[in-house]
Amino acid sequence: MPRDRLRLVVSHGARRLPGPPVLSVIAIALAVLAQHTRAKPCAAGCTVYGTCNEELGRCDCPRNRTGPACHQPLSRKALAERCRLLGTQDVNKCNSEANTCINGCHGPTRGACVAGFCHCRPGYFGNDCALSLGGADGKTPVVLSDRGYTPRAVGPRVYIYDLPPELTTWRSDINLDRWTIRHFLEMLTASGARVADGAKADWYFIPVRLRSSSDAYVLQRAIHHLRHAHPWFNATGGGRHFVIAVGDMGRLESERGPLSANVTFVSHWGLASSKKAERLNSSPWRASHRNATDIVLPVYISLRKLEKYGITRSRHHPKFATMAPPEIRERNGPLFWFAGRICQDRSKPATDGVWPNCPGAMGYSAMTRQAVHFHHWDRPGYFVAPGDKNYSRHLLTSKFCFGAMGGGHGQRQLQAALAGCVPVVIGDGVLEAWEPYLDWNDFGVRVAEADIPRLHTILGAIGPEEYARKVRSLRCAAQHMAFSSVTGAYMGESGRFDAFETLLAVLAARARHPDTPPERLRQADPVLDAFMDCREGPDGGGAALVREDVKVDVGRGPPLGREVRRPEGKAVTAGQTAPQLIVQHQRKALALRAGATAASAERHSVSEALLGSVGQQGAARHGPAGERRSLLGAKGNHDHKPRQRHRPAVAQKPSGMAAASMHNATAIIRPRRVCSVSPFDTEDPAAFPCRSLVKGIYSPPPGGLICAGVGSVSQCPRLWS
Ligand SMILES: *[C@@H]1O[C@H](CO)[C@@H](O)[C@H](O)[C@H]1NC(C)=O
Ligand SMILES: *[C@@H]1O[C@H](CO)[C@@H](O)[C@H](O)[C@H]1NC(C)=O
Ligand SMILES: *[C@@H]1O[C@H](CO)[C@@H](O)[C@H](O)[C@H]1NC(C)=O
Ligand SMILES: *[C@@H]1O[C@H](CO)[C@@H](O)[C@H](O)[C@H]1NC(C)=O
Ligand SMILES: *[C@@H]1O[C@H](CO)[C@@H](O)[C@H](O)[C@H]1NC(C)=O
Ligand SMILES: *[C@@H]1O[C@H](CO)[C@@H](O)[C@H](O)[C@H]1NC(C)=O
């Protein structure tokens, strides 16, 4: 590379990367070096049985094959050993066809599912075969080039590492109980947040499953791998990288070693300061959540469970008041309600007035369940018991519901919020979902552990007006707790404020304000502020959002050689200057706003499109055997020639983000909504009942029920433009 061009890269990067310019220079130099050294073709014949990551020259094999080009089948003994290392003792389960593939490998044209592993056709790669080399230079990874995929206008731009299968798709998901990561992975593509060019990303997602403490080593190995294979980790020091850790103890359970110190853990467990052993009468609860980096995500509750708990009949639904059955319509259940495990060993807590009431099981829920039972189990109007045959009715008819911790994170507070029961949360030093971006004391009641004995006084002091205000705030908060894009809607919500969208909104705001501490982020970022209030945008107009990645250097046009992304995601030639672009976008936005009925008209046409294509969907997820046959049949034995390797364009740089905070343009929101699983909507075609769109609503299509009926993940309705 000529020296003057290198200097251009360096100064360009120095202007945009956060942190001292010297660090940026080093980061850019590393990035350039790494991209030069990593280009290597895959071993010849790789794609006969395997998948060739053309960006890295890495040949990935299915679980039961080995060798540089996957030609060698594993003996049953060797497979058993591999499975054991993957954490599955049962070989049949480990390599079972019942293991599903991410996004159904975008089959059949792009790939076929081999027991969880995506066998991609030549030219396609990635854990779900979504990637290929393309772009302006033909050498940059692109997402679903043949399906008209465009990144969404509102950020964040999320890069998903394509890790070796032993860290990802070889791991059996047959017994997996928490699918949040898979849903999120698919939703990143469905929602248009995914980008394939790491140089343009705001965030980097490390897609390893973190469910139990034995998964922690996988993350450690993943970071070792990606740190050598890509420049982004070193360039950011692990910042702007995130994982989703769904284990009970969050980061504490999923982290080994200091390498992930700057990685954002998106977890359910928000314990930010340790609890002392003597107070618990058990081993201490060590702090897990780090305020400056980590994010508390609500627990994903599947549609099956939502139905079981009665939550699909949520009080938040606008039709609840008129359509709910009489036995749940009034709030005439307990004043305060909790039904669930109280003693860790599930024994019945003692009611003889002697503390502790669960002597054999100290420490569970940091003793809060035990203490609440001890002080209030026989108080009139209070229901605190290990079980309740009328669980779903009480969840909907109680006034206050105790959202207790468990052996770490719990989900009762989320059930309560979703059902419309004002949640009572008790856990000193524990951040609840989306705190500090939401305040649970606003729509719920936060009680200090020391105040448990006077809980009844605290709740008694909440008058009807304050209670009504909490209930009103709860409807918006509940939308942030729901995973409506996957499960379908049940509160009359559009889904655009759902938990996955909220995660994206928080990540986008943090990318815009890298140095703002979380507790001040809403103040600093009007877009996030509006979003958390379930408002459309900072201007209140409903049609426009501040767009973050379009405009650069007004008056001078885009910097040399750099692609500028339009809100629609199409690359724009360098001849078109940024101000021109903004004018175009604003015109579009204005045009949309001008027609007051534009939104409803579009909604209508969406529903028609959805209803019209019902028949096409359904093939993707479980990849019928026919798909694989046709793939193999079509491919024959020839392997494709190695393509030219990716070399960095002059001005590519590891940060798309620092630039973002300077940018300002207007993008268009296309109002969209997810179909409804609410029993109150089954007779109302205008509400898009999910059952009319897709039969198997319990196993949603890739990308969730928001994608019901569309046929390809790239065609899912976008909730935010
Ligand atoms: C490998 O496993 C897949 C999926 O179970 C199976 O279809 C295939 O026949 C196996 N191949 C070998 C060589 O055992
Ligand atoms: C990142 O840093 C580590 C440790 O210094 C080094 O071993 C690795 O090669 C670096 N990665 C890249 C892509 O330069
Ligand atoms: C984490 O960030 C700090 C401060 O920027 C840096 O000194 C440290 O090296 C980073 N850690 C890793 C593992 O890169
Ligand atoms: C983290 O945030 C919580 C809630 O805002 C606060 O109570 C706690 O003191 C913070 N912890 C640290 C270590 O800053
Ligand atoms: C459930 O509710 C019904 C109706 O109020 C009541 O008759 C019954 O006793 C309750 N069952 C239990 C186990 O509490
Ligand atoms: C974006 O631009 C508009 C119009 O030029 C301006 O009114 C607004 O204040 C700008 N917003 C930000 C966040 O810079």
UniProtKB/TrEMBL annotation:
The family database entries (InterPro entries) matched by this protein are listed as: EGF, Exostosin, Exostosin_GT47
Which residues are the signal sequence here?
1-39
Outline the extent of the EGF-like domain. Answer: 38-71
Q: Which domain of life is it from?
A: Eukaryota
One GO MF term attached to the UniProt entry: glycosyltransferase activity
**Keyword line:** Disulfide bond, EGF-like domain, Golgi apparatus, Signal
Keyword field contains Secreted: no
One term under GO cellular component? Golgi membrane
Species of the source: Chlamydomonas reinhardtii
Its protein name is EGF-like domain-containing protein
Q: How does it sit in the membrane?
A: Single-pass type II membrane protein
Q: Does DNA repair appear among the keywords?
A: no
Similarity remark: Belongs to the glycosyltransferase 47 family.
Q: List the disulfide bonds.
A: 42-52, 61-70
